[in-house]
């Protein structure tokens, strides 16, 4: 077992936890929603200082894991964005491109899988439904309430399983 594999995990969401999606939420307000444009604009997301500071502080005691509802096709853009922000290295778990389950289901499934082998010290996420389900499952949660929430984004997370 390596030193890092003994460390507990701190699990961070991306959108509206570490990345400010305000500038691209407009793509979700029209019908039909323009998902390609929404995800194409992600590399321009400004970082959210509260979330970034918490990730950096958590890295002192924990291994960082990124858990996002973004589809796998956004893999390279996501890795480049994390590196550009100087965020700690960590594994990235993303939604399969065709997976349309609500984020609260996909994320809880991955959290449980991670917890089989390691202590999950904390989940940091902005989605209230994800946070509530994770707490009910026994995980410690920090609600990322430092970004402005969009009703269109919340609906998309729950009903369309897109982020």
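^ Assign residues to that structure.
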């Amino acid at each position: 077992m390596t030193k890092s594999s003994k460390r507990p995990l701190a699990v961070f969401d991306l959108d509206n936890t570490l990345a400010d999606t305000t500038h691209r939420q407009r793509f979700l307000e029209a019908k039909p929603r323009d998902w390609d444009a929404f995800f194409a604009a992600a590399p321009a997301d400004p970082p959210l200082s509260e979330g970034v500071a918490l990730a950096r502080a958590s890295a002192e005691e924990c291994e960082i894991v990124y858990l996002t509802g973004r589809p796998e096709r956004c893999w390279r853009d996501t890795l480049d964005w994390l590196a550009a922000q100087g965020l700690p290295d960590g594994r990235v778990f993303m939604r399969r491109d065709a997976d349309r389950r609500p984020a609260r289901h996909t994320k809880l499934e991955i959290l449980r899988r991670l917890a089989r082998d390691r202590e999950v010290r904390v989940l940091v996420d902005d989605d209230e439904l994800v946070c509530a389900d994770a707490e009910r499952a026994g995980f410690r949660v920090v609600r990322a309430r430092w970004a402005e929430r969009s009703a269109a984004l919340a609906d998309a997370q729950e009903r369309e399983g897109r982020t």
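The CA atoms of residues 60 and 98 lie 35 Å apart.
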